[in-house]
Amino acid sequence: MNTEQNPNNQSPTFINKDTPVLVTGATGYVAGQLIKLLLEQGTQVHAAVRDPSKVSKLKFLNQLADTLPGSITYFKADLLDSGSYLEAMQGCELVYHTASPFSLDIQDPQRDLIDPALKGTQNVLQSANQCASVKRVVLTSSVAAVMADNTDIADAKGDHFTEADWNERSSLEHGPYLYSKTLAEREAWKIAGSQTQWDLVVINPSLVIGPGINPHATSESFKLIKQMGDGTMRMGAPRYAMGMVDVREVATAHLKAGFNQSASGRHILSAQNTDLFEAASLLKDKYPNYPLPPMPAPKCLIMIVGPWVDKTMTREMIKRNVDIPIKLDNSKSINQLGINYRPLKTSLEDMFAQLIESGQIKKR
Ligand code: NAP
Q: Which of 34, 66, 81, 301 is most buried as measured by Cβ atoms within 10 A of its Cβ?
């Protein structure tokens, strides 16, 4: 599939900054920093959330709306409730579709990941087809839709994974979250290609880190970085290779993908290729008194204990990703969206500081 040649992207973009902008999954970690940027530039945000009556989930968004020039109006919508985003979309020229479950600890991968990701994307994009004001949709996909495992580099089109690569190997059994993101993004390109009213721009972040607007965000990102400092990895951390990117750069990329006329296709967002042990080690200078992993955990040991400690860590995943470097090419995001990545150390330190301040990580 050649997503770089979306014919709809030839038309001039046009987003009128005075029209409302829809953000699905507004309560999420990534969406929070995006909404902050939108509010800073004075946008009327239509925030689609599962339950607007749960005011505790909206507290941090409301605090931003109280102090920044833009405004927020909440709408009730669910990925699995067909047509439920239509009301929130009325009058919007730009739609950000960020909502999708990001959880590795699930009971039923079809029900808990695939259905909301895939049917939710169909739901939102089919509503865009019915809403004449919509001119552009920005989808929050993932590098999960670019590659399944680090060993896939052997099949990649170049010596690094680029926007031309697709995850061809994840499945319900092997990496179901990655599979959900792949199916959802493929479906988004299919729906985009079947109409001419709006164009699609996609953001493909690696592991998103850095402070959220809500210090108690439930995204897997928070769980993972918390585990680096709460003693879970006190015996060692795997050299599980992955890319990492600051949530503030991911939000900026969404903003530019929405409003820059020339933005098109997919965009890998990743500040640095690293691994869990290396990333945790970057915290040692500033946080020497926290139970950070002291050494890399040997692959053979992780093969034995990994699946017992964490049921999402299968032997197949360990075999294909631990001690195998990742190679993500972020040059399109720099050259075409103008992203200026901050150092990974800064992102990790800022996130760690937030976890300490909110009482989620304590000194040894
Ligand atoms: P998050 O904080 O868990 O946000 C997920 C959002 O999706 C929440 O607002 C959640 O609503 C909403 N959602 C889930 N199921 C829904 C449903 N059935 N109906 C309506 N809304 C539903 O995770 P995140 O890290 O911000 O992820 C946001 C997006 O970025 C996702 O598409 C994710 O795949 C993508 N992404 C994340 C990362 C990362 O490392 N964090 C990396 C690459 C891509 P509730 O608050 O009601 O649960």
A: 34
